[in-house]
Amino acid sequence: MARTIALINNKGGVGKTTSCLNIGVALSLLNKKVLLVDIDPQGNLSDAFISINRVQYTIKNLLEGDISDINQVLIKGVKQNIDLLPSNNLLNGTEEKLLNKMSRETILKRILEPIKNNYDYILIDCPPSLSLLVLNSLTASSEAIIPIATEYHALTGTNTILQTIGQVKQLLNSELRLSGVFITKYDERTNNDREIKEAIQNNFKDLCYKTIIRTNVRIKDATNSHKSVIDLDPQCNGAIDYINLAREIISQEKVIGGVDNGEII
Amino acid sequence: MGKSFSDDIFNNGFNLDSINGLNISKEAIEENKKKATKPKIDISKIDLSEAKKEMQEAKKEQETIQDKSNELNELKDLEKELNRVEKEKPSKEIKETTSENEYYTKKTMIFKSEYLDIIMGLASVKDMEIKNVLNQIIELGINKLKEIDNTLIDKAIKESKKNKSKKENNSLF
Q1: Residues in CB range of B29: below 8 A, 6 or more apart
Q2: Nearest in space to A4 (alpha carbons), one of A112, A107, A163
Q3: Which residues of A touch B36 (CB under 8 A)?
Q4: Per DSSP, what are the bridge partners of residue A3?
Q5: What is the ipTM of this complex?
Q6: Of A34, A72, A115, B112, which has fewest CB within 10 angstroms of its CB?
Q7: What's the gap in Å between the CA of B37 and the closest CA on chain A?
Q8: Under an 8 A CB cutoff, do A102 and B17 touch?
């Protein structure tokens, strides 16, 4: 059965999509069978593999019920060991359509159920919000990972995320766990980043992954090229950090923590 | 339009559970509750026949092992006994040899120790029994006496016969 991990943060620009892509590629290189689920209407994750405007069916069609068979939407072998459930900006109108549906929070879970056994890892790239699509992602997942960038107000809003995870665990998915947080965009040359890094590590303690994703111009280059940084420049710091992070994720035998009403337990 | 006490904006058929302002569907909550309380393994659906079969086979194996173990212990006891007997056997032989030696030692106590040493030594060198060594030495002695005085031995034999009829005990010692 796959480890289904939602990458979640309601702040934009912290590196959710970049991390989802690069962790996925790293896992595939480490011989894991990976499904990348793009549930963000921006479709940036899908963009790294396909031309999103030319895709006939996306996750929108599955969520709204136009298509019931996931295999019609799944794009297999976008890279070795990687399949993709794509998205594009047409997903923008989907939440409104789902608001009055029964069990609307469990739709993604039901979509993924038939194929879970085909993968070692399912990574869900969530939109930067705490909306119904994010609730679907958390309900479908066994784990949540929060990327936190070393920027101003880095920790602002993480309480809300933790509370959301706690509430989803309580109401919708008792098996959901917080696997951890990891630091992104870290520049060790600046005092500000060092202080924020320390604050994050002190706050989350064992829940903070040891691997830190350092700021690296090659990561930006890769994004601009619609590629993973591992493919663009396997020797750069960005590639090395993501591979190490993937290894760290693999090394977790079981999830290391949980959230209860915002208190980390 | 004014508000009325009969208006209940919360009594609209939706449940009150919400996350981030989003009302959560009852069905999803119920589904989670059922999953949380349901044991992962339904014991009533487990087929025990295979497990029972395995248990029986395991029991048989255990009995076989136990039997073998008992046999082994018995063999060990036998071995112990055998070793004990083997150890005792040479001591019995030694006793017999010792008593035999004592007998001969008694018999030869009349000889001078230097003669006795020669006799014992000859027995060892020639690999002969002491009695045979003695008899041969005596025979040599008698033949020598015959050379010196050929009548002396005949006289000795006659005298010996005469004495035999008188004495009850024929022992020389």
Answers
A1: A171, A172, B15, B17
A2: A112
A3: 174
A4: A121
A5: 0.81
A6: B112
A7: 10
A8: no
3-state secondary structure of B46: coil
Q: Which helix (H) or strand (E) holds B22?
A: strand B22-23
pLDDT digits (tens, 9 = 90+) for A173-225: 999 999 999 999 999 999 999 999 999 999 999 999 999 999 999 999 999 99
Q: What would the pLDDT profile of A96-135 be if each residue is shown by its tens digit?
A: 999 888 899 999 999 999 999 999 999 999 999 989 999 9
Size of interface A-B (CB pairs under 8 A): 43
Q: What is residue B111's three-state secondary structure? A: coil
Q: Which residues pair with A28 in a beta bridge?
A: none
Helices (H), chain B: 26-37, 48-107, 113-125, 130-148, 152-166
DSSP assignments along chain A, one per residue: --EEEEE--SSTTSSHHHHHHHHHHHHHHTT--EEEEE--TT-HHHHTTS-GGG-S--HHHHHHTS---GGGT-EEEEETTEEEE---GGGGGHHHHHTTSTTGGGHHHHHHGGGGGG-SEEEEE--SS-SHHHHHHHHH-SEEEEEEESSTTSSTTHHHHHHHHHHHHHHT-TT-EEEEEEEEEE-TTSHHHHHHHHHHHHHHGGGEEEEEEE--HHHHHHHHTTS-HHHH-TTSHHHHHHHHHHHHHHH-SS----EETTEE-
d(CA A167, CA A161): 10
Q: Do A164 and B25 touch (CB under 8 A)?
A: no
Strand partners, A35: A83, A122
Q: Find, in chain A, the residue whose alpha carbon is nearest to that of B18.
A: A167
pTM: 0.65
